[in-house]
Backbone:
């Protein structure tokens, strides 16, 4: 039986009619029909190419159509497309051995899921089972996933629709680390990293804290890079209080920041690390929850009460092996750091030129650009409440203008997340920054007078 053909307009209409567009109002949704993607570009049905300056959802680390990863998927599909997680497979054993060598030292036992959300769900359950405690400390301006446990630990407005059910018992929030706009109204370094010290205050005044979960570099919520003292001090606080440290590296892992994992910049070893996205360069869904051998030993004599049908799915694991080998072969971890300095210089030049830019921050090929009405007051153009109420966002207008000019850039509330494929060239960075430069005139035109 042949597959019916559709016009591009029918593809778009049927997509909007029969499927949900995520994190958006459904009325008026008209998704762009994409038919191809290769390298750092994707192509629509009209043949127009777009430079992918945010790796889609900050996940296409190796760019589109990496042949080694595609070959691994094809070969695994022919060899063993599926087997239940209770069996051993070649690829499961090989990837596990590779992860022990790449991850921060001490992480030696893995649960393979199919998303970062599921990896975090596993982390929460493991933390609660091992410690016998229940509470999880997360931070505001964080995103940990969309299922019940992970959305409960998410600090941004994507959690709001699920309240009060979304806030499962035992999840409490600490202030984020944001040296540009400190939630505690402090200034670094005079603050002596009060935001992390407050977490110890929470642990001491809350009973029953099982774990603290943080994105070592906050992703969607602004690419917030902590000062050098933050992660070592958080590790110390968790150790001193017998609380597990969970590092959510779903977005910041796999060379994005110029190290295999962002936590490596500070030499800190978490008790649990979760990751996804770039592990397969997003060609197939795979998430990993990695734990120390100490945590793993608990389950030698205690029931491991977690699992699902697609855990350790061979078709998801094989491309991860290929993707890791490609990162090594092309020296993309080191290249991320080198090109990140180049891109950071370019973005900071834009800040000097455009009064609508409040802050430019980043590490490796992971950058955030924040727009403000007034550089002195740091007042944003839009708020989280604007996002969920459907109010038009200025960042979306800027991003739409860039799309007209053939550059895709991820926008969120009042900032942009810049995270191109690690294979991007300096010439492509220049092209994207030029488009950004031109589109920022829209933001400059909306400025409030400086007071």
Residues:
């Amino acid at each position: 039986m042949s597959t019916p053909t559709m016009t591009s307009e029918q593809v778009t209409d049927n997509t909007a009619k029969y499927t949900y567009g995520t994190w958006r109002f459904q009325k008026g949704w008209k998704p762009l029909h994409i038919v191809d993607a290769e390298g750092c570009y994707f192509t629509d049905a009209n043949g127009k190419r777009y430079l992918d300056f945010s790796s889609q959802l900050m996940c296409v680390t190796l760019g589109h159509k990496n042949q080694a990863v595609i070959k691994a998927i094809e070969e695994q599909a022919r060899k063993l497309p599926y087997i239940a997680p209770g069996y051993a497979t070649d690829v499961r054993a090989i990837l596990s051995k590779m992860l022990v060598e790449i991850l921060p030292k001490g992480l030696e036992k893995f649960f393979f899921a199919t998303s970062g959300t599921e990896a975090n769900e596993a982390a929460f359950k493991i933390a609660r089972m091992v410690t016998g405690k229940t509470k999880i400390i997360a931070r505001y301006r964080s995103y940990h996933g969309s299922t019940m446990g992970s959305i409960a630990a998410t600090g941004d407005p994507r959690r709001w629709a699920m309240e009060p059910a979304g806030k499962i018992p035992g999840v409490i929030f600490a202030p984020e680390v944001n040296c540009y706009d400190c939630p505690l109204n402090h200034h670094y370094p005079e603050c002596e990293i009060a935001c992390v010290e407050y977490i110890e205050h929470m642990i001491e005044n809350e009973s029953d804290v099982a774990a603290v979960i943080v994105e070592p570099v906050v992703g969607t919520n602004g690419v917030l890079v902590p000062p050098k003292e933050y992660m070592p001090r958080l590790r110390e606080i968790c150790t001193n209080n017998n609380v597990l440290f969970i590092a959510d590296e779903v977005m910041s892992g796999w060379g994005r920041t110029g190290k295999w994992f962002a936590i490596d910049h500070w030499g800190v070893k978490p008790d649990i690390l979760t990751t996804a996205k770039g592990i397969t360069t997003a060609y197939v869904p795979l998430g990993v929850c990695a734990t120390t051998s100490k945590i793993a030993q608990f389950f030698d004599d205690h029931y491991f009460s977690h699992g699902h049908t697609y855990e350790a799915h061979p078709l998801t694991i094989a491309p991860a092996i290929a993707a890791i080998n490609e990162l090594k072969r092309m020296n993309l971890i080191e290249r991320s750091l080198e090109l990140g300095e180049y891109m950071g210089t370019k973005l900071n030049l834009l800040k000097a030129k455009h009064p609508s830019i409040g802050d430019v921050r980043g590490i490796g090929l992971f950058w955030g650009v924040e727009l403000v009405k007034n550089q002195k007051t740091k007042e944003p153009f839009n708020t989280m409440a604007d996002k969920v109420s459907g109010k038009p966002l200025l960042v979306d207008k800027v991003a739409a203008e860039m799309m007209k000019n053939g550059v895709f850039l991820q926008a969120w509330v009042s900032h942009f997340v810049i995270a191109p494929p690690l294979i991007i060239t300096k010439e492509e960075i220049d092209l994207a920054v030029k488009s950004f430069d031109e589109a920022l005139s829209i933001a400059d035109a909306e400025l409030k007078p400086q007071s």
Notes: Residues 67-329 form a domain with the Aspartate Aminotransferase; domain 2 fold (CATH 3.40.640.10).
